[in-house]
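Data card: per-record layout.
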Amino acid sequence: MENLLEIKDLEKSFTLHNLGKNIRALSGIDIMLKEGEFIGITGKSGSGKSTILKCIYGTYRLQQGSIWYNSKKFGPINLADASNRQMIYLRQHEIGYVSQFLNVMPRTTARQLVKQAILEMGADYKMAERETEKILLHFELDQELWDSYPGTFSGGEKLRLNIARAMVKKPRLLLLDEPTASLDYVSKLKVKILIEQLMKEGTTMLGIFHDLEFMNNLVDREYNMHNGAFTLSS
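The structure for this 234-residue chain is written out next.
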């Protein structure tokens, strides 16, 4: 397997039982992603962009097609057929996901969330503490919030924390679902700096953006999505 990720003929539908309708979200999606590449996907809301990422991450199960990922631990593995145990391992050690929303366990502080992500990668406690403080400072999250529960944070603060938690692990594959949504210009630049750093270190990325200016000179290829399918833009 030459590519890090190969998506072939991906299809996904949702059944609305109360209305007796079947809605097709994705149709005939093919993506080849080489190690170290960064592919951007654009398109209107509801066009199916996030569904692709959720199929890769295992949140959604697909009706047709395959998602081959060249895992460091398992070798080539079809994520569509991966077991729950395999997906948990990959999420902890190889595949990161930045969503627009922060879903965390209650009564867990911002510091604990980031630190736990680093510890999952096998780092020792002191290194985890050091890297946690480093990335929280990078995103200028007020130090008074570090030991607070994220449920009290603003939308922008939650998103910055979500990005920090995913990026600090330096995953082999990073999925970005609108990583700059609800962020101010300065925070967007800080996200861009970390993306560029991860790219230099070899992280492969697949990202969804509405902010085309943010993507400029950042992605290797761009796909535009419309009604569950896309065409290569550049």
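Known properties of this structure: The helical segments are 49-57, 84-93, 110-120, 125-138, 155-167, 185-200, 212-215. The domain at 5-232 is CATH 3.40.50.300 (Rossmann fold).

See the next section for split statistics.
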